[in-house]
C-alpha cells in the first residue's frame, strides 16, 4: 500500500500545532504547518481554556494543511485530533456548548476528591477505574460542578478532542483512550462504568458511545469545508486522542523491556502492559491504568514534569529576565550537584504562580539552603525530576514484575540533554531520546494504520525508530550519590 498524507492537530497545555504527516511502509515525515499559543484565561469563576481560540487555530492549521497537501497533489487522506486529557465541554439539548471548559489547574477541585470518596470509597473507585488520584480528574470536576445550572442543563459531555471533532463533523462520540482518564471508566471492561455512574448519580446519557483509535468519526461539515478548503469527503479519524496515548504509540522501542517517559508539561513515566495492574499497592503508589492503542494499558504515574521549568521561566520573563533556555541549561550543568532537591509532586507546585518562590519555601521548610542563582534553580528542578523519574520507574517495575532495560524519553522534553543525561544517571539505565514530536507522530500513525498504509503497533514503532533522529545516553557518575539524594527527598 502506498504512502498517504495526513493532518494531525495536537493541542498541548501551552501551544497547539497542526502537522502534515507523510506515512507509508518505509516513510514517516512531519511538517509543522501551523502553531498557535494556548493561553488559559482567568475569569471571575475560575481558570478556563480558550476553546474557541483553539478550534480556530485548528481550522487555520487545516487550511494550511490543505494548501500544502495540494502541492503534494494527493491531498489530505484524513484528519486526527489529540489533546491533554481530563477536561471537557458540556452541550445542551440543542448541541450548544455550555460555558467555557475549565482548565484542570483551576483550584475549584481542591478537597473534592475526599468528599466524593465518602460516597464511593477511594479503594472501591480505584478498583474499578484503576486511575491514579489526581485532584483534577474529570469525575472530581463534575463533583465540583454538581448542583450548578450548567450541569443541570447539560445533555452531553465531550472531552476536548471529541468536542473539536464534533465541531468539525457534527458527530458525537467518546474516544476511549481519553475516556479512560475520566474516573468514570471501567479499566478492565473498557466501557463506561455503570457502577461508578450509579453511585455518583451521574446520568448515563451524558456520556456518548465510545469510539476507539482508528474509528471513523465522520466527514467535514460545510462550514469547515469553506473555512479550510479541505474536500467535504475528508474523514476525521478518532486517533488515540489522549496525547499521552499517541506519544506512547510512537515510542521507538524495538524490543521488550522498555519504559517510557513522555516529557512535556508532565513527565508521564511508566510501562505499556497487556493487562492492568490494579492492587492496593498500585493505588498507594498512585499508578494509573489508562488505555492505549490496540487495547494496551499505560501503567504510569504523572510526575509534575517540565511545568516546573516552564512556569519558572514564565515568572522570570515577568521580571524582565532573559529566559533563553540554552544558557540557563549551561549554568545548570555547571551548578553544584544535589545542592537543593524537591519532590516535584508536592501539591504546592500544581497551580500556576511563582514556582521559584515555592521552591525556595520548600527548601526552607525541609532545612535546605534554597538555590542561590538561576542556574542552581534550574539544576534543582532537573535533578528533582530525574529523581522522580527514577523512583517512578522503579516502582512501575516492582508493581508489574517487569524488568526495564532501556528508557525511552519522548516529547518536547527529550530535547533537554541535561534532563536526559540526569535521568540516565539517576536510573542507571540507557536512555534513548526522541522523537520530540512523538504525539503528532502517534496521531499520524494511527490514522495511517486505519487506512492500512502501516502495520500494527510493533510496525509503527519500527518505522519511528528507522525514520526519526534519536539520541543515546549512557548512565555516568556515581549511582550511590543518587540513592543518597533520593533518600534525602523521600523519593527512594
Ligand atoms: C499530558 C496529559 C496527561 C494528563 C494531563 C492532564 O499532556 O494529557 O497525560 O494527566 O495532561 O490532562
Automatic annotation (TrEMBL):
<comment type="similarity">
    <text>Belongs to the FGGY kinase family.</text>
</comment>
<feature type="domain" description="Carbohydrate kinase FGGY N-terminal">
    <location>
        <begin position="10"/>
        <end position="248"/>
    </location>
</feature>
<dbReference type="GO" id="GO:0004370">
    <property type="term" value="F:glycerol kinase activity"/>
</dbReference>
<dbReference type="Pfam" id="PF00370">
    <property type="entry name" value="FGGY_N"/>
</dbReference>
<keyword id="KW-0547">Nucleotide-binding</keyword>
<keyword id="KW-0418">Kinase</keyword>
<dbReference type="Pfam" id="PF02782">
    <property type="entry name" value="FGGY_C"/>
</dbReference>
<dbReference type="GO" id="GO:0008993">
    <property type="term" value="F:rhamnulokinase activity"/>
</dbReference>
<dbReference type="GO" id="GO:0019301">
    <property type="term" value="P:rhamnose catabolic process"/>
</dbReference>
<dbReference type="InterPro" id="IPR018484">
    <property type="entry name" value="FGGY_N"/>
</dbReference>
<dbReference type="GO" id="GO:0006071">
    <property type="term" value="P:glycerol metabolic process"/>
</dbReference>
<dbReference type="InterPro" id="IPR043129">
    <property type="entry name" value="ATPase_NBD"/>
</dbReference>
<keyword id="KW-0067">ATP-binding</keyword>
<protein>
    <submittedName>
        <fullName>Rhamnulokinase</fullName>
    </submittedName>
</protein>
<dbReference type="InterPro" id="IPR013449">
    <property type="entry name" value="Rhamnulokinase"/>
</dbReference>
<keyword id="KW-0808">Transferase</keyword>
<feature type="domain" description="Carbohydrate kinase FGGY C-terminal">
    <location>
        <begin position="259"/>
        <end position="450"/>
    </location>
</feature>
<keyword id="KW-0684">Rhamnose metabolism</keyword>
<dbReference type="GO" id="GO:0005524">
    <property type="term" value="F:ATP binding"/>
</dbReference>
<dbReference type="InterPro" id="IPR018485">
    <property type="entry name" value="FGGY_C"/>
</dbReference>
<dbReference type="InterPro" id="IPR000577">
    <property type="entry name" value="Carb_kinase_FGGY"/>
</dbReference>
<keyword id="KW-1015">Disulfide bond</keyword>
<dbReference type="GO" id="GO:0005829">
    <property type="term" value="C:cytosol"/>
</dbReference>
Amino acid at each position: 500500500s502506498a504512502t498517504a498524507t495526513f493532518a494531525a492537530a495536537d493541542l498541548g497545555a501551552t501551544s497547539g500545532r497542526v502537522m502534515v504527516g507523510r506515512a507509508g511502509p518505509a516513510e514517516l515525515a512531519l511538517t509543522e504547518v501551523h502553531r498557535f499559543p494556548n493561553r488559559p484565561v482567568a475569569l471571575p469563576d475560575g481558570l478556563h481554556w480558550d476553546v474557541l481560540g483553539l478550534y480556530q487555530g485548528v481550522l487555520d492549521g487545516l487550511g494550511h494543511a490543505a494548501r500544502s497537501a495540494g502541492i503534494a497533489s494527493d491531498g489530505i487522506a484524513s484528519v486526527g485530533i489529540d489533546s491533554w486529557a481530563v477536561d471537557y465541554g458540556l452541550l445542551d439539548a440543542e448541541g450548544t456548548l455550555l460555558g467555557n471548559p475549565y482548565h484542570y489547574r483551576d483550584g475549584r477541585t481542591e478537597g473534592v476528591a475526599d468528599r466524593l470518596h465518602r460516597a464511593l470509597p477511594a479503594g472501591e473507585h480505584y478498583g474499578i477505574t484503576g486511575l491514579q488520584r489526581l485532584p483534577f480528574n474529570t469525575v472530581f470536576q463534575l463533583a465540583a460542578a454538581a448542583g450548578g445550572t450548567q450541569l443541570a442543563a447539560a445533555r452531553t459531555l465531550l472531552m476536548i478532542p471529541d468536542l473539536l471533532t464534533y465541531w468539525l463533523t457534527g458527530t458525537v462520540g467518546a474516544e476511549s483512550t481519553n475516556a479512560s482518564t475520566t474516573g468514570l471508566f471501567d479499566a478492565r471492561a473498557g466501557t463506561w462504568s455503570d457502577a461508578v455512574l450509579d453511585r455518583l448519580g451521574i446520568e448515563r446519557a451524558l456520556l456518548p458511545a465510545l469510539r476507539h483509535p482508528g474509528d471513523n468519526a465522520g466527514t467535514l461539515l460545510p462550514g469547515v469545508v469553506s473555512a479550510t478548503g479541505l474536500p467535504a469527503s475528508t474523514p476525521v479519524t478518532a486517533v488515540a486522542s489522549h496525547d499521552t496515548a499517541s506519544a506512547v504509540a510512537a515510542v521507538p522501542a524495538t524490543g521488550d523491556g522498555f519504559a517510557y517517559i513522555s516529557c512535556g508539561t508532565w513527565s508521564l513515566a511508566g510501562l505499556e502492559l497487556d493487562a492492568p495492574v490494579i492492587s492496593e499497592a498500585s493505588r498507594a503508589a498512585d499508578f494509573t491504568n489508562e488505555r492505549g492503542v490496540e487495547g494496551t494499558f499505560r501503567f504510569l504515574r504523572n510526575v509534575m514534569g517540565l511545568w516546573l521549568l516552564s512556569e519558572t521561566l514564565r515568572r522570570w520573563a515577568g521580571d524582565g529576565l532573559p529566559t533563553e533556555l540554552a544558557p540557563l541549561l549551561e549554568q545548570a550543568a555547571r551548578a553544584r550537584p544535589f545542592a537543593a532537591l524537591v519532590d516535584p509532586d508536592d501539591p504546592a507546585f500544581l497551580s500556576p504562580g511563582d514556582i521559584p518562590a515555592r521552591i525556595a519555601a520548600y527548601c526552607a521548610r525541609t532545612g535546605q539552603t534554597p538555590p542561590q542563582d538561576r542556574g542552581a534553580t534550574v539544576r534543582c528542578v532537573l535533578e528533582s525530576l530525574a529523581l522522580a523519574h527514577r523512583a517512578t520507574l522503579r516502582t512501575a517495575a516492582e508493581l508489574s514484575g517487569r524488568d526495564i532495560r532501556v528508557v525511552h524519553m519522548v516529547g518536547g522534553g527529550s530535547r533537554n540533554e541535561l534532563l536526559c543525561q540526569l535521568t540516565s544517571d539517576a536510573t542507571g539505565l540507557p536512555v534513548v531520546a526522541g522523537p520530540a514530536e512523538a504525539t503528532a507522530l502517534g496521531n499520524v500513525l494511527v490514522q495511517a494504520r486505519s487506512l492500512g498504509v502501516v502495520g500494527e503497533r510493533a510496525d509503527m514503532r519500527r518505522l519511528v525508530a528507522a525514520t526519526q533522529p534519536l539520541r543515546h545516553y549512557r548512565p555516568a557518575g556515581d549511582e550511590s550519590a543518587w540513592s543518597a539524594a533520593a533518600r534525602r527527598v523521600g523519593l527512594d
